[in-house]
Fold this protein.
Amino acid sequence: MTIMTGTSMMSKTKPMTTPMMKDSTPMTTTLRRHGRPVLVSVSLIAWAAVVSGRFDAQQAPPAPPAPHVIDVSAERFAFTPSEIKVKAGTPLEFRLRSDDTSHGFRILDTSVNVRIPKRGKGVTTVVFEPPKPGRYTFECSKLCGAGHSFMRGTLIVTE
């Protein structure tokens, strides 16, 4: 093992020469290994990759559909809109804002349960794709006052 530190060892080695083939042509034009050109092997590998579809751009998986955006406001024991109709298989993006105090937003029998900040403090975004057609009830999940139990809505998913 040779370690070079700061100085070149070129002066201590023999100058490099181009290896010659049997017919006195330089080997830099065609590399040979066991009597066969290496270039043929590389070409065959590239051809096989193209034929097998590895470089085919059309093999990419399709992009998921863009979510349907639904703006929902929460205020004084009601969601607006309180009834939402969508087609099955459509991803939904709820943009939730409050027009008064902080609220919650929960879709029953799903994992969706988020906090909506009070007026002027921002918007909460939730992405949800209904697993099947049907009716989904959403409600406020944070005690917000005397009419809290009436703060509900329905998501209707049709085929």
Q: What stands out?
A: Confidence is low (pLDDT under 50) at residues 1-11, 27-31. The two ends are 72 Å apart (CA to CA). The first strand starts at residue 32 and ends at 33.
